[in-house]
Amino acid sequence: MIKNNIKYLAILALGLVACEPEFDNPIEETNNFTSGELDLSNFVALGNSLTAGFADGALYITGQENSYPNILAQQFKFVGGGEFTQPLMADNTGGFAGNNDTFPPRLVLVFDENQEPVGPAPYTGAPSTTDITANLGSTFNNMGVPGAKSFHLAFPGYGSLNPYFERFQQSATSTVVGDALALDPTLFSLWIGNNDILGYATSGGTGEDHNMTGNIDPSTYGDSDITNNGVFAQTYAGLVDALAAGGRKGVLIDLPDVTSIPFFTTVPFAPLSPLDETFGPQIPTLNATYAGLNMAFAALGVPERAIEFSTTAASAVVIKDESLTDITANLTVAITPVFGPLAPIIAAQYGQARQATEEDLLVLTSSRVIGQVDTDRVAELVGLGVPQEDAGQLSVIGVTLPLTDQYVLIPAEQTAIKVAQNSYNETIRNLATANGLAFVSMKSQLAQVASGGVLFDGGVITSTFASGGGFSLDGVHPTPRGHALVANGVLDALEKTYGLVVPRVNPGEFGTITVSNEVN
Amino acid sequence: MKKLLLLVLFITVTAVTYAGGYRVSIQGQRAMAMGHTGVAVVNSAELVFFNPAGLVYLENKLNVSAGVSGIFSEVIFQNAESGVTSETDNSVGTPLSLYGSYKVNDWMAVGLGVYTPYGSEVTWPTDWSGSHLVNNIDLAAIFIQPVVSFKLSEYFSIGGGPIFVTGSVNFNRNSNRTTTDINGVRSNVTVDDSGVANWGWSVGAMFNPTENLRFGFNYRSEIIIESEDGEATFANFPNSLAAPPNGPTSFTAELPLPAELTIGLSYEYKKWLFAFDFNRQFWDVYESLDITFGNGAPASINPRNYKNSSVYRFGLQYEATEKITLRAGYYIDESPVQEGFFAPETPRNDSDGFSGGLSYAITPKLAIDASFFFLRFDEVDASYNSYQENGQNVPFGGTYESSAFGPGLGLTYKM
Hints:
The structure holds 2 protein chains of 2 kinds. Chain A is of the alpha/beta class. Chain A has 19 helices and 13 strands. In chain A, the strands form 5 sheets. A 5-stranded parallel beta sheet of chain A has the order 4-1-5-6-11, sandwiched between helices. Chain A has a two-stranded antiparallel ribbon with strand order 2-3. In chain A, strand 2 and strand 3 form a beta hairpin. Chain B is mostly beta strands. Chain B has 3 helices and 24 strands. Chain B has a 14-stranded antiparallel β-barrel. Chain B is elongated and about 70 Å long. Chains A and B meet through helix 1, helix 2, helix 4 and strand 2 of A and helix 1, strand 2, strand 19, strand 20 and strand 24 of B.
């Protein structure tokens, strides 16, 4: 009897065994994920701020975690990818402790009580705590160095020029590429060259174009200069030679158009609205004053420089175009009957002035100054004997005081950038082909973001500033969602060239900009 | 031969219990062992739940049944496109039941039941890929029900009584797929409330055309749990005028416990008893889970669009010895979730339930009841399509596979 009972209980107990759910077709077994020809155990990424995960004008932890190389490394883990280390900053504020003048904290988007965006501002909710002098003591898989130009990667002692590299350089004479190779990578990526034109572009073309100067000594180049095409080609070939030595596999990424990033597309050339409470009422007076100048322009044979503001539509800002012939001397003579003793000063102010056209690109930072009174200029004019009131009226930036070079990319400057970019990209593409490396055209990918936008499951990613989702608040660097697009582009290229098959990431699961009212 | 048949029943037809949605059908150890049939089974005080009309036909003056089960459930998820896999880490659910009945005289019996017919405890890994829908949820409802049962004749009885419900909920999920605070920690909301009370009722009838055959009918009313005094806690939202403030606020929400109709029969042949129940659950009342917040944050609107669903239950009982009664059951449990509304907070698709169990009479008055159930789900490719970003639907889906099983123990006392 008892035996029977035990038997029944034993049968019951059998039922308890093995009730864990299991898929009929678990993806670990049925997927077609494969590393193809790649050994992903030690992936090393080289580049500049884009590779480092710099965003919102700063380098900070979550930006680094969402850098495209780190996203790639996570996907590589489906097929044997190794650990991917990054030289993480100490906080999510960004910038270096005690050096916020040069390395400011990240930008956040500020909103008002009506939940309308006010604009980006530096985050002040927590101080920058990263020590600018501390060396982290090891080398990292992410070798992206914010600010680096092509020739910096092979420049011994670059760390002394750039604290972002100084943080993890192996010695005072290290090169970025040398330290990277010391890791013995099994796969590399290289996205460099952006800063060889971008520094010039973001400075409004204030630097030198060394394709014009013919200077081929990069050690003499300034931050805002365009690297000579020959120098770039030679430098880049050297980098690829070193990285691809011994048949090492890798991916090269080309350079997007600067005109596809919001830093250059956000501020319209004609931002002066007649509906503006300050500007609107002054239009008749301004036009009356400019009428005298316009007659002189006509008389001097440059009627196209005439300046006039519309009372019904937005007007173009007044800019200084340094490519124009300086007519200060003749203008002084021409306007003396009208302006009397002020004539020389006014003529100097408008000697190379014109209104902007749709061919001109105003940089993002110009939005902060347009319509503002330049107090330095006021003081200068007063010093020259101009009455205070007149001095004030002559110093409204973009309205009476022409926007200076640093705020405008005029067509000639855009052409200089384009010439360099085309040459660099040809170099990159040719070297990828010659070395059998994977190649990603970020130029065409970003062009798509900038033109129609890229669809994802929650909307469209565009290059519209702040709201487009692709670009962070500095208008230059991608958001995490933008990095997701870059990562997918690289995965496409690695699949095409090396047969790597891993899942793409969903851009919709990556964030965009950060809102915060913790600002001063 | 008979023993072999029993073995087969035990091994292949063990049985069980969930029903779709957040209904947890384990309201009696004996019924559970028989596929949770019971609307026409006169066996124990479990009738308080299954059909109060039957209480008056119990032989003994006093009947008490108490039991508890442990539910071990797990759900796994994978998305072949993204390569994402996740699995739940649920704690053990413990539905319990306590029933007593007392025969006042030949034509009237009274009873009292305390049971937990609704609950859902699902815990996904925090910030998993469906975290904008749910990180974890814990629902529970305790029903307390006095009943009275009248025998109108040897053939027919009726019964019923009011139900007092007290419920609780704890539900956490991320605000959306991407929003974080300045440190990258995902913004999330927890709603928590307990002691939410309301009333309902149930009625039953039983018809015994012959000595061996019974028909039963039972209806339990819909009960809406209206949460008004709970607390919603916003956490890790960015410190911005564009985001809701972090910290606690009030919320309101309604969760329906749907009405349920059961009809069934039982037939007794020598030492065998066969039972069949048909449950119809009126889930169509669960159209949307809408949560409004006291801090002005946008309301959370979550279409559910459930449909009415049915469960077909078969149970068998065999008096093996004087002391041992064996039971087995099988049921087909339809999910109320419609295509495109498969949310990971209640990831239930159609399932087959197998149950088994036994009673062992320690004394003529006291018996131990044991039950066991196992739910077999087909893996299902399903998605929830009503989550929105920027006014457009963003489906979340993949392949789900669930399992649930639960052993239970109880006592039956009669005098």
